[in-house]
Amino acid sequence: MANPATETTRKKRWVFVMEPDRCIDCEACMVACSVENHVPIGEHRNWIAHRETGAFPDLNLSFMPENCHHCDNPPCERVCPTGATYQRDDGIVLIDYDKCIGCKYCIQACPYDARYVNEEKQAVDKCTFCVHRLDAGQPPACVETCIGGARHFGDLNDPESEVSKLLATHDYTRLYEEAGTGPAIYYIRGK
Amino acid sequence: MREVEFHWNVLIVIYLFTAGVSAGAFVISGLATYLGGAKYKRISRIGAMIAPCPLIFGLGMLVFDLTKPLQFWWLFLTVQWTSPMSIGSWLLTFFSLLSIIYFLLWIPRPWRDLLRVPHRWGEIFSPKRWQSLSRRDVGIARRVIAAIGFPVGLGVGMYTGVLLGAIPARPLWNTPMVAQLFLFSAMSTGVATVLLIAALVRDKSDADHLHHERHFLVSVDAVLIVFEIFIIIPFFLHQALNTWSSAESVNLIMGGPYTLAFWVGVILLGLLVPLAIEGFELYPVVWREAAVKYSRLWGGVSAALVLVGGFLLRYIFVYAGQVSHFLPLLER
What is the distance between the alpha carbons of residues B122 and B142, in angstroms, rounded to a whole number? Predict the structure, then answer.
């Protein structure tokens, strides 16, 4: 098996590059997503994690925009008993809502807690990278609406893309990378 | 810290528990059939009569927990080799079938004679010519089903732990010891159910007979409890001395919200007290070659405690496991 951390096997690899320093926790991305994707009230496909570091009085609070990491090696897909969760050739992890019977095993398996039960669909749901917009040539709704410019989206395998250039010139980190999930959200390290 | 949502609830706990009891009852019944024959006939029968019942109830709970209960059969349109739940669904189906056949074979006469089967290939499509099974045929059939069901029952017992353990995102579950613990606990709760029913049912057997079956069941259960203790000790040592997330996950049971239920409910009442009672029962056999010192009251109490402990063990693992996380639970 290829090392999921290198991710050079796919023709296209859609990724997010987040700049926590530019996030002001306005939650416009969450609203835009809920409107775009008809997310039921009370659930969210994306969120802002609050990371507090340091000890009083030297405290630091940073905002980390997050959603499904669309892992290259997704733990949720592996455990799905009906094959409802699947991965496209470009790495996007999606759910076939008709095939999902709602056993919630994938919710347990996701280390990022990115999944929820959509009562209206009677199925498990999560961020799709706005695949319907993507296939029409548009960026995800959360990226378009972000007023601080904290969310960047693009093809990692295109050296000319904004995300490739950002990663070439900045230090970055990914969450839970050591476990080999191959997450597609990169965080630019703060100054 | 953000609030954790429990997506798996008590329905899953009931299912894991009942599947374990069924697997244990079947395995002990099969074992008794092979090891004792006529000597352990009553145990074999009780085990076989119990085996399908808790499981069918538990599977009902499992289906009811789905967001689409009526679409549960989607599980059986595919085999997903990397999903323990998919493999487990097939295993459970196979086991349910075997335990129902085994149940029918152990129904006492004259009711068993109502069960008619074809004796020749040509009779398959003409049910009127079917006949009830002879004593000899039933004996053979029981042994065949017990032999096939034995590994399947062990598989079901182990699967309930693998289901939890195969998820790297939940550090409390993510160790092979959970599968071992659940397997031995499943066998123990199955034996305890047989012991409990045997204590409740009025027996007409002679003292020698009763001594043999009590000796067998109590010894097996005591050994299983000792196995469980020897899994729990290294489980705690390893988790506590492991990475941050693993150490954090056992803190839920070592000082956290599940501490009392685990140490008093599972360890003391579910393992140590029954082991002490069973030790007291077996003591005369070991030291004086006398009969098992058995009272139906204390035998029933120890069996009931094993069942309570087995249920609590699964309850605590299912709930505490969902609180345990590899990544810190950041506020959202």
Answer: 24
